[in-house]
Specification:
single chain, 175 residues, alpha/beta, Double Stranded RNA Binding Domain, 2 domains, 5-stranded mixed sheet, 41% helix, globular
């Protein structure tokens, strides 16, 4: 076999070998991606208890007192198929909020709205002791003018609950 013919055959064999190796190393059909653990932890939740933490005065000014938020969330969560209970055994959905003022920027408001779902989780290295731990969290952080803060509070609280219910549905749909 002439040298150029031999070179072509060797090149073809090397290419076939590399192609076969690549096919074995990376499947042609990727596995279905699973949801991240915090979202998976929401799968098949049926009951919830709601806790609204101490809220800044700006929430009351925006018409979003703790009792109103709890009532709104209770209605929306029931409409989404959750049973709202008082049992300490049920996962706890909580809302916290912080607003920060800066004397150097008197019209600006920095804020954090934070939602957490605490569930009893068994910790293997503690002999499977069940501890109430946050398995899901979500937050909104921003800076707004004083005049737009009311609208931001209302939309932020609604968005956090929408995110939670949508992610619960997504997790429960993935079986």
């Amino acid at each position: 076999m002439p040298l150029s013919r031999r070179f072509q055959a060797l090149t073809a064999c090397a290419a076939a070998f590399i192609l076969a190796l690549t096919a074995l190393a990376a499947p042609l059909i990727p596995e279905k991606a699973s949801l991240p653990p915090p979202i998976r932890s929401l799968r098949n939740i049926k009951q919830l208890r709601i806790e609204i933490g101490q809220l800044p005065e700006a929430f009351r000014s925006a018409g979003m007192a703790a009792d109103k938020i709890k009532d709104d969330w209770t209605t929306k969560l029931r409409d989404a198929g959750f049973e709202i209970v008082q049992s300490e055994e049920a996962p706890k959905l909580s809302l916290s909020a912080f607003i920060v003022l800066d004397d150097d920027v008197p019209d600006a408001r920095g804020y954090v709205f934070y939602v957490a779902l605490d569930q009893n989780v068994q910790v293997a290295r503690l002999d499977n002791e069940a501890l109430p731990l946050p398995t899901y969290t979500d937050f909104i952080v921003g800076v707004e003018s004083e005049t737009s803060m009311d609208a931001e509070i209302q939309s932020g609280v609604a968005k956090l609950l929408d995110n939670f219910t949508n992610r619960c549905a997504m997790a429960s749909a993935e079986q």
